Fold this sequence. Notes:
The chain has 162 residues and is of the alpha+beta class. The protein has helices at residues 8-24, 50-71, 75-100, 103-106, 118-144, 148-161; strands at 27-35, 38-45, 113-116. It has a 3-stranded antiparallel sheet with strand order 2-1-3.
Amino acid sequence: MKAGKISYPGVGVAVGGVLGILGVFMTWFSFAYVVGGQGLVVHLNGTHDWTGDLTLLASFGAFGFGGAYILMDDPKIRRITGILMTACSAFLLFMPLFGLTRLSAVVDVPGASTSYGAGIAVSFVGGVLATVASFLAAREKAAGEVAPAEAEQVDSEAATTA
Length: 162
């Protein structure tokens, strides 16, 4: 990374991680039932299920590794942080999808009407943003690398001109 140049894919992954964190603490599941003639609505955030816990972990990872990808200049460290932010982004993308299959397991109240909250969608959008930004980071790295054959050719040309 050149001095003063911002890595926008790293920013995208970090923002996706923040969206994932916000989404986990919003309502993922809700249920309503009648008690004594009065309707009672209960909202559950993402940490009430293991999918939300893994989403939170992946969100923190995406935020941290995205930030490291922005700040680090060493190509080896950037490669490792790029791989780790891609893995966290993939988990951040797929865990809310698994959460959609867990409504009946999380809300096991007979006679209650169940629904999903907006938090699961916010976490999913964060996962989409982080995953797309991770793939852009991989393309950015691939575009900036020089193939080994080209590097040897440049070295041999420099040796013949010297």
